[in-house]
Amino acid sequence: MAIFGLWIINKAGGLVYQKSFAEGLAQLTSNEQLVLAGTLHGIHAITSRLSPNGSSSGANVIEGETFKMTIFLTVTGTKFVLLTSLTETIAEHILQRIYEAYSDAVMKNPFHTPEMPVRSEGFETRVNAIIGSGQT
Amino acid sequence: MTINSLYIFDRHCICVYYQDWHRTRRPKPASEAGLLPCRTVVAISNELPPPPPSTAGAGVGGLTSTGLAFDEEAKNMVKKISGRDEQFTSYRTSAYRLHLFETLSGYKFVMLTDPKTENMRVQLRRIYEGPFLEFVVRNPLVKMDSREQGIDNENFRAALDRMVRGLPVYA
């Protein structure tokens, strides 16, 4: 089981934070990652509009053949995305804890501009403490 | 656990077959939305009276469509992230789960189920290997790539229906 990476996407679909942990997926340039974050934002919006029964949230988990993306949408529209192996079971829990760290270390920081890239040492440390090297 | 519906798209992304099982909201007809069938996303969130149980309509004339343009997007995204030739297989929301199986010839089998179901790729593959190959591919009367006519074959429909109703997740 491995955690490959973490993305934070703001409510406009821009990638504001990105970090890779374990190896296993393609090495992407930051530009490619920005594009993919935008794609994910669009897919998420579409999946919430399609539903065979009643209203639906956007995609919570998107699966490929070797990895999955777990998406956690906060009430303010920020998306936390965790790229993990398919067998990872605690992805939701990890995202919840990262959201806590984000609230404490980023949102409560008076020098942080909302919706802008996250550059915070405190947040970095907390993320490393939660995920470590990406092996669980 | 339920199975909501099954769509089959050909390699031009045209919906060639569609069948419903449990569904509380009627999909919006593609023609009514003024859109090309299947190419575009049709919002199924329109409030309409529940459909008669187990309606089935096939082909482009069958007036049903779903969003598969974004499926291409999802596929590209999955491919890029993994860096391998890898398929997008499923996604899950709070209300439903979409499973996708794509054949080498470009046919896409899409199934909507309850969000709690396991991955249905194997079952979709079995639909392809069983009824689809038997009654569609090996049937000389079916025009495979017509772009005008969907799969309108009673044997296929019956075999598929029997197969889906026999699945453990069907309830």
UniProtKB/TrEMBL annotation, chain A:
Protein name: Trafficking protein particle complex subunit
Organism: Ephemerocybe angulata
GO cellular component, one term: TRAPP complex
InterPro entries per record: Longin-like_dom_sf, TRAPPC
Localization per record: Endoplasmic reticulum; Golgi apparatus, cis-Golgi network; Golgi apparatus
PANTHER family in alphabetical order: TRAFFICKING PROTEIN PARTICLE COMPLEX SUBUNIT (PTHR23249), TRAFFICKING PROTEIN PARTICLE COMPLEX SUBUNIT 4 (PTHR23249:SF15)
Quaternary organization: Part of the multisubunit transport protein particle (TRAPP) complex.
CDD domains for this protein: TRAPPC4_synbindin
Protein family (similarity comment): Belongs to the TRAPP small subunits family. TRAPPC4 subfamily.
Keyword set, alphabetical order: Endoplasmic reticulum, ER-Golgi transport, Golgi apparatus, Transport
Domain of life, per lineage: Eukaryota
Pfam families: Sybindin
Gene3D superfamilies (UniProt xref): 3.30.450.70
GO biological processes: endoplasmic reticulum to Golgi vesicle-mediated transport
UniProtKB/TrEMBL annotation, chain B:
Keyword Membrane in record: no
Location of this chain's protein in the cell: Endoplasmic reticulum; Golgi apparatus, cis-Golgi network
Keyword Cell inner membrane: no
Biological process annotations from GO: endoplasmic reticulum to Golgi vesicle-mediated transport
GO cellular component: endoplasmic reticulum; Golgi apparatus; TRAPP complex
UniProt-listed Pfam families: Sybindin
Coiled coil: none
Keywords annotated in UniProt: Endoplasmic reticulum, ER-Golgi transport, Golgi apparatus, Transport
InterPro entries for this protein: Longin-like_dom_sf, TRAPPC
Subunit structure: Part of the multisubunit transport protein particle (TRAPP) complex.
Family according to the record: Belongs to the TRAPP small subunits family. BET5 subfamily.
Name used for this protein in its record: Trafficking protein particle complex subunit
